[in-house]
Amino acid sequence: ATVTIKPTATSLLIKELKEPLRDRKKTKDIKHNGNLTIEQVLGVAKKMRATSMAKEFKGTVKEVLGTCRAIGCSVGGRSPQEWQNDIDTGDFVPEEPSD
């Protein structure tokens, strides 16, 4: 049996923020107050699609936005919560990746 390790949404988002590695033993509860573009979030959602529980791609995007909120980063200068509301109201419709 082969074991494969899939990265979590959190680790992918922190990589996208391009923050330096920190010793988690010394600094607890690190807030990542960087800013991602919506394209970066969509890229992470595309990578997470296979492991997501959501039926549609927009659900996966909302999961990733929730992770953004949990680690404390903003998306396109706005809070992840605002993006989630835009998806709910239909103001923003993430495109399903074609591959």
* Number of separate domains: 1
N-to-C SSE series? HEHHEH
Q: Give the name of the CATH superfamily.
A: Ribosomal protein L11/L12, C-terminal domain
Class from helix and strand fractions: mainly alpha
Residue fraction in strands: under 5%
**How many beta-strand segments?**
2
Distance between the termini: 28 Å
Report the major sheet. Answer: 2 strands, parallel
| Order of strands, widest sheet | 1-2
Q: Any guess at the CATH architecture?
A: Orthogonal Bundle
Contiguous helical run count = 4
Say what the CATH topology is.
Arc Repressor Mutant, subunit A
Poorly predicted tracts of residues: none
Could you explain the architecture of this structure?
This protein has one domain (1-18, 31-99): Ribosomal protein L11/L12, C-terminal domain (Arc Repressor Mutant, subunit A, Orthogonal Bundle), CATH 1.10.10. It has four helices and two strands; from the N terminus they run H-E-H-H-E-H. Helices cover 45% and strands 4% of the residues. Helix 2 crosses helix 3 (57-71) and helix 3 (57-71) packs antiparallel against helix 4. The protein is globular, with a radius of gyration of 14 Å. The chain has helices at 9-17, 38-48, 57-71, 80-89, and strands spanning 35-36, 74-75. By secondary structure, it is mainly alpha-helical. 22% of the residues are buried.
